[in-house]
Specification:
Elements (H helix, E strand, L loop, with lengths): L15 H14 L3 H4 L2 H13 L1 E2 L11 E2 L16 H13 L9 H9 L4
Antiparallel strand pairs: 1-2
Helix pairs in contact: 1-4
Length: 118
């Protein structure tokens, strides 16, 4: 999931984090997560998910915090903001993978959710 999607699925690249979430959820429901993913691979996936986290900055404060869907599309400063649905699937995926969520900018996400839509 972390590499580029096969050509037939590249039109879904902006949903890559969502695809990952549904894949992990299915494996977890089937009690097959540990059969399919090594601890090393889980750590790589966790690291990739954290790379999608948008943290506060001096210009926009908390208004862009959360997670975006993929790292393979160009992100300009105007597009670099978290999305509530992507934030949900990122957090859910991290929990499924057994992460302790210590790398989450909780304050940023809470303030972004509380903030008016921008």
């Amino acid at each position: 999931m972390l590499n580029l999607l096969p050509e037939a699925y590249q039109s879904h690249d902006s949903s890559r984090l969502t695809l990952l979430y549904f894949t992990l959820s299915a494996l977890d429901l089937l009690d097959a997560l540990d059969d399919v993913l090594t601890e090393k691979r889980k750590a790589e996936i966790i690291s990739w998910i954290y790379s999608l986290q948008v943290k506060p900055d001096d210009e926009h404060g908390f208004t862009r915090c959360g997670f975006y869907a993929t790292d393979s599309l160009p992100h300009s400063i105007h597009q670099n903001h978290g999305h509530i649905a992507m934030t949900y699937v990122a957090l859910s995926s991290l929990i499924i993978l057994g992460d302790d969520l210590s790398g989450i900018d909780r304050e940023g996400i809470i303030k972004r959710i509380e903030a008016p839509s921008t």
